[in-house]
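Worked example 2:
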Amino acid sequence: MATILVTGGAGFIGSAVIRHLIANTDHDVINVDKLTYAGNLESLISIEKDERYQFEQVDICDASEVERVFEQFRPDIVMHLAAESHVDRSIDGPGDFIQTNIIGTYTLLEQSRTYWSQLNTKKKQNFRFHHISTDEVYGDLEGTKDLFTETTPYSPSSPYSASKASSDHLVRSWHRTFGLPVLVTNCSNNYGPYHFPEKLVPLMILNALEGKALPVYGEGNQIRDWLFVEDHARALVLVATQGKVGETYNVGGHNEKRNIEVVDIICELLEEFKPEKPQGVNSYKELIIHVQDRAGHDIRYAIDASKISDELGWTPQETFESGIRKTVEWYLNNQTWCQHVQDGSYQRQRLGYV
């Protein structure tokens, strides 16, 4: 049994990791989250009263508070997911991405190094710093069959991916220079329950249910490898606990789809699950509109996940067809969570009203 400190644990992927840890392991979990707009404690209601779970509202850029958390909880593993992650927001305002993704990672690395260097021999040998990143650091794939591997050169296209690339380099340099025992994972596009509705899949579901337009960038021909978030959570915990120090593991869903295909599939599932439509809507697909493409929009991402499969035995349990069906059903069955995000009432937790 270990004590695992998860940064960004109130976010989409972080909350999935914590739910998985509490439900399927014996580990203690410390959730460190600043609770920005993307942090939602309602995503953790199912486990929040578990005696193995503790929440700390802390900004990872606050060195003194990060130091306090380390000294108070004495973690064995750090799983670093805290990040600004929405590409459009990084284009509109890059500053927060530089601060959180680069300065925050540096602050966390330095505190981890100080803490790790003072541990006794056994605890020091077992300590791990697992940095969770994205396939967007690799940039755009030229061909239709090429895949991102762990050695693909970095070529980020947006302020978001550039800030994540920077944090990846910092983590690896802290291993190379100081010996800090690190692991890095780079994942493909996640989808699933509790996803903040500015992202493609939940935005399409919720807009369609309200009879609103379904905006698709350009022709919607951008190709992404789609990974069900609960499969990703399993992979992350496996890497954190069994991965080889200093190694990078790519995590992908083996599900390449064009964005327009994803939207079409969502509309078809809604026709099945929710045939009674908003007034004036004859079919969900008629709500699709094409809008000006995003600046610097990469065309294709695709992950070669053979390393994590061969070395650690991980493969995704969900196909895109099974995962997206579960996702649409979840949003239909969890309208209260959705409503609280849409009307902003979930943010009361930031003001201490929870």
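The domain at 3-196+227-254+297-318 is CATH 3.40.50.720 (Rossmann fold). The chain has twelve helices and twelve strands.
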